[in-house]
Amino acid sequence: MHTASDPKSIDDTLPTAVQDVLATYLAAKRAQLTAAEPSAGDAVDALADFVLGGGKRIRPTFAWWGWRGAGGAADGAEAEKVLTAISALELIQGCALVHDDLMDDSALRRGKPTVHVDFAGRHRAAGWHGDPDKFGAAAAILIGDLALAWADDLFTEAGLTAAQLLAAGPAWRGMRAEMLAGQYLDVLTQSDGGAPLPPAEAAMRVARLKTAAYTVERPLHLGAALAGAGERTVGALRAFGGDIGVAFQLRDDLLGMFGDTAVTGKPAGDDLREGKRTLLIAVAVTNAEQAGRDATVEMIHEALGNPKLSADDLDRVREALVDLGAVAEVEARIERLTGTALEALASAELAAPAGDRLAALADAATRRSY
Fold this sequence. Notes:
This protein is mainly alpha-helical. The chain has two domains: 1-160, Farnesyl Diphosphate Synthase, CATH 1.10.600; 163-370, Orthogonal Bundle (Farnesyl Diphosphate Synthase). Helix content is 75%, strand content 1%. The protein contains 16 helices and two strands. It has helices at 14-36, 41-52, 58-69, 77-104, 115-126, 132-156, 162-192, 199-226, 231-258, 261-264, 270-273, 279-290, 294-303, 311-323, 326-346, 354-366, and strands at 108-109, 112-113. β1 (108-109) and β2 form a beta hairpin. α4 (77-104) runs parallel beside α7, α12 runs antiparallel to α13 and α13 (294-303) packs across α14 (311-323). GO terms for molecular function: metal ion binding; prenyltransferase activity.
């Protein structure tokens, strides 16, 4: 058991503590499922490798500091139950990423083959009947679904009280629904350009739903609700989380375009090749149109959604994004959102040391380098 004075307390070793919960849980679930159907072991192993093999545990971290900031205990039986419950957020993240990679036809995640690519490769290597890519897609859909189902199981079976489950229900349900709505909006805007919304507004709505809501805002809401926080505290934390979550996504967009693959784990320019209409792209196109730079607009549109985009063409788009002021504008938005988020955080009147920890998390999430 962790203690507040122990240097190995949950406050100080949260990612490791979450990892331990997940490893134990997934091993137990594997044993249960393979007892019913041994062939499912490969799917569970792939899920476990994916969930345990990377990630910074951002969502449970924000949930934990929502709990602590609203007066939740740092150690003891109740804290351990909350730790178990919020670890379920990593399984929701696993579902989202596995499905997202499939929808975007991404080849790499964290420097390794994505789940659908991995299982298509297994099919080819074994010489099985049928289409390897269809098998890979089917496996990824089912593995993502399994992660989502087990997230619910882990959360509801963590040992929380009936009152805690009732209080946390709106955050838990809202987070899942908003994540899926944002994912759908993301897919839709790749097809309709975000119509009838202006491109920049559509991009910001995707960022708020797909990333901010389930990465920062709702985890904070969840943790605070588990601690019995009032509306004022929850409102301040959600305001902080919404703005920091969007800033986090905007930083991710910049990293996706300009970042080092060795650091990000995904090829630079993947969002462009996948046709994602990020704020970065929306601002660049709008600025080019206003400047009468039709050739530049055409170049960006030809690159958007082109899976065979060359390195030279990517460099030309990146140069245009800088030249058109899109990078500077996105950086400015990140700064503004971070500022309003920190103002909301200051108004929350959280128990120490949650305010300081959340401010540090905000800085780390929004100031990642290329």
